[in-house]
Each structure stands twice: as C-alpha cells, then as structure tokens.
Specification:
With 261 residues, this protein is of the alpha+beta class. It has three domains: 2-65, no CATH class; 75-136, no CATH class; 155-259, Immunoglobulins (Immunoglobulin-like, Sandwich), CATH 2.60.40. The protein has helices spanning 2-24, 75-92, 96-105, 123-136, 218-225, and strands at 35-37, 44-49, 52-57, 60-65, 111-112, 118-119, 155-162, 165-171, 179-185, 202-207, 215-216, 235-244, 254-259. The strands form four sheets. A four-stranded antiparallel β-sheet has the order 1-2-3-4, with no helix packed on it. A four-stranded antiparallel β-sheet has the order 10-9-12-13. Strand 2 (44-49) and strand 3 form a beta hairpin. Helix 2 (75-92) packs across helix 4 (123-136) and helix 3 (96-105) packs across helix 4 (123-136).
C-alpha cells in the first residue's frame, strides 16, 4: 500500500514538474539533478532540483531553498573564468589522438564526490584540472595525458599565527623533489565556527621543491585577505596539497585551523 501511495505521489510530482518546465520553457536535459545514495527509499541526497537544495550539516540532512548569489565579478572570479575558458579552448585545439589519450587515462585518476562516492572524470575534465594546477604552480601546460604517480604523505605541523606573522610547518620537510606545495587559507572567521567549506578557501602561496619547513605565508595571506591587526582571537583555516611539477596531478589536501594570537 505504501509503494502505491509513493508511486501516486511520484506521478503527481512529475506532472507538476512537467507543467513547470512548460511554463518556464526549460528542458529536462538542462536541469541540475541531485545526487543520492539509494536506501529503502533514499539514504542520502546532494545538490539541487529546481529551487530546492539538498545538503547535510552537523545536525544531519537538510533541505533549503536555493539562493542565487550576486555575481560581483571580482578580479579573482574574472581571472578564474578566463583561465577555464582558455583551457577549454586549448582542449579543442588538441589532436584527436591527444584527446583520446586523456579519455583513456581518466579512469586511472578516480575522484571522490560530495557523497563520498568514487567518480571518473571525463578526459576534458582531467586535462583542465591538470593544466590549471600547472599554471597555478608556474609550470608549462601539457598536451599528453600523464601517468599515475605516487605522493608523499603530507601532514601539517605547528601554525604560528599572530597579527604580524603567519608560518605553517609541514612534513615531509623539505618539499619533495619534483613537487610543489600549494597553500590555501580562509579569511578570519568567528572562533566558534567549526565547519569551513571548500569554497571558503583561497589560494595563498606555492612553495617549490626543496623548500624547508615552515612556510612563511604572512605577506601572501595579507595580500589576499588584508591586515590581521585587530583580529586577535579570530580563526583561520589553512589547507595544503602537493602538485607534481611535470603533470599537474594533485595529492590529497590536508588542513588545520589556528587562532590569531
């Protein structure tokens, strides 16, 4: 009986959705659908359907209305969009054999999505991600797909953070040959804030191979987020990951937080 009721509700919902599409002139194929983990009905669900967002926080699963942010067109946003457009154009400029090579290589580099599930990038996504990392660390772009590599186990050490200094210790020390260490950080936030989402982190600095720990991030941090004076007690998140200089492949990020002392 429950299954029949659910089926009826699904049919009604689909009819309402079809009416919405006809009114707005939108296509089903262009709608963004949510990811979910199947359970008895649905175990977990992420992303959005129409104006409804499905997510999760410390209290459990949540559903909220989608809010479209104002497009402020900051310098950072503009540069990022230009970079992605440039790499997409470069992808189209590859030979078919080169594109086939990236498509064939992509299963060798599985990624984890927002539900913790393993997903496979397309060849174009792998190409863009690798070359974006290479440009980030100041290396030349590549046209041929890389081979898998192994990464050293990266760990964060002590963070020294004051109004006038910011250093971050790390291991392995020094940075391994053939790799660069990328640092990202957040703006100062309330010390009571426990969750720092990926979108809150901004690129700060690259530390080249053979550089010793700790990394001095103070000048680079203040160039992005401004002076820390008067912000004693605020929390800053720090994230780091290794990038192979020859391929742009990135290791698993590690992160820590510290209070401005």
């Amino acid at each position: 009986m429950l299954l029949i009721k659910l089926l009826v509700l699904f049919i009604i919902a689909d009819m309402v959705f079809a009416l919405y599409l006809s009114i707005t002139g939108r296509s089903r194929s262009k709608m963004l659908f949510a990811k979910f983990t199947p359970g008895a009905i649905i175990s977990e669900i992420r992303n959005k359907i129409a104006a409804t967002v499905y997510s999760k926080n410390g209290a459990g699963a949540i559903i909220r209305n989608r809010i479209t942010p104002i497009n402020r067109r900051t310098t950072l946003q503009t540069n990022q969009r230009q970079l992605l457009a440039s790499l997409a154009s470069a992808w189209r400029g590859l030979t078919q054999a080169q594109r086939n090579g990236w498509n064939s290589a992509s299963p060798n580099f599985p990624q984890t999505d927002s539900l913790g599930q393993t997903v496979t990038l397309t060849g174009e996504q792998l190409y863009v991600r690798s070359n974006a990392n290479l440009l980030l660390i100041g290396q030349a772009q590549i046209t041929d797909a890389p081979a898998p590599t192994s990464f050293a186990i990266l760990a964060m050490g002590a963070t020294v953070l004051t109004a006038s200094s910011f250093t971050q210790a790390f291991t392995p020390d020094p940075v391994p040959a053939g790799f660069s260490l990328v640092f990202r950080a957040t703006r100062p936030v309330s010390p009571g804030k426990n969750f720092l989402g990926s979108s809150e982190f901004r690129f700060i600095q690259v530390v080249a191979a053979a550089a010793a720990s700790p990394a001095d991030l103070d000048a680079a941090y203040e160039l992005v987020f401004g002076d820390k004076t008067g912000l004693v007690g605020q929390k800053i998140g720090v994230e780091a990951f290794l990038v192979e200089d020859s391929s742009g492949l990135a290791g698993i990020p590690v992160s820590t937080t510290a209070l401005i002392a």
